[in-house]
Design brief:
Blueprint (H helix, E strand, L loop, with lengths): L1 H21 L7 H4 L13 H29 L1
Helix pairs in contact: 1-3
């Protein structure tokens, strides 16, 4: 069981890194340094961005649950 949660944790960690890097920069910080502040937003976020946000939150919840589960398994 511990091996299963470890594999889930590793997979969701890698996927979370990919999803965060796919997000559009909100301005300021490093995104402006590399040219991320050049484009202007024309209002609200697109359907693709909202779906990316939902997917990122879903993967984050799975990642958090696997961390808690591993912690509980290691405690006993």
């Amino acid at each position: 069981m511990e091996l299963l949660f470890t594999i889930v944790l590793l997979a969701t960690s890698a996927f979370m890194i990919l999803l965060v890097l796919l997000h559009k920069g909100r301005g300021g910080g490093l995104s402006d340094m590399f040219g991320g502040g050049v484009s202007s937003s024309l209002g609200g976020s697109s359907v693709a961005e909202r779906n990316l946000d939902r997917l990122t939150i879903g993967v984050g919840v799975i990642w958090f649950a696997s961390v808690i589960a591993l912690g509980l398994l290691k405690a006993y």
